[in-house]
């Protein structure tokens, strides 16, 4: 099979709910990052074989194959196709896997993978409105569990012995790391500014500077009165888009591009859908085995902060270095625009690897229904 590289990785700022990006249609927000991809690489979009675009709530403004309309909104040739993927929060990470598989197999030479979610315009759960998405047989199999991620996060906290102080402490560190990264300019080169009717949005909006565990301790829990999960230790409802250019080293060289990272392996795993958010644990083991490397060789981990207990349980089970895990902060501080998050995390990780000479990076994402993606990439020197 052919070698696969990522030759460009860009993202919009992540906007907070009803913030700077809330007035932008998801197709237009997607188009902005696709346009920037072409401008920064100099490629002819007519050469792109496909656009694989993640999006979770595919209703309203995000209905009718948002991936295709992103291509049209970007002004790319009508000959460039686009499709939309939904693997819950891992949608755009799965889009990357699909793109890599297409290029690796030789069926396609250059694919753009990414995703979008404008949760300010299409609220979380909008796709479920008026429906019964799980079906009676699945519900009966799990004793009519609600499949509520917040409840699952509470179950994880209980199983791994994570008290309120521990999850709040982790969440405060997420904001601290994100603020430090923003101040150091770590995100500057990867961000595509978005011009809106209200002005230009050029930085991530979710960071709350000065957040401490003591301040978070005053927030009311969201799912269980005697629980630990609340708005301050959960991922933020957000808006954003991101794109990755996936190709072969030979094609990149022919286009005058310098590959950023090599795609070493991707994996997806299923796990208990009641605990739901523990899938990154088996997915990590699976992808390391496929990549042929050991966990201590990995220099940075991006483990999506859906809720603070998710990365904390993952750390406890894998024994990974906490200092190398979400070193720039995560979704608690920077936000979680569902369908875009996989590509957003990959973009952050790739640029962090390039800036710091880190050979291997591993990204993993918990997903509704008890699945998880994991991906290993290797720096191209």
From TrEMBL:
Pfam families: Thiolase_C, Thiolase_N
Domain Thiolase C-terminal: 258-378
Keywords: Acyltransferase, Transferase
Keyword rRNA processing attached: no
InterPro entries found in the cross-reference section: Thiolase, Thiolase-like, Thiolase_C, Thiolase_CS, Thiolase_N
Alphabetized SUPFAM superfamilies for the sequence: Thiolase-like
PROSITE patterns listed in its UniProt record: THIOLASE_2
Domain Thiolase N-terminal: from-to ranges: 4-248
UniProt entry tagged with the keyword Glycoprotein: no
Family: Belongs to the thiolase-like superfamily. Thiolase family.
Annotated PANTHER family: ACETYL-COA C-ACYLTRANSFERASE, BLR7806 PROTEIN
Name of the molecule in the record: Thiolase family protein
The organism of origin for this protein: Nocardia halotolerans
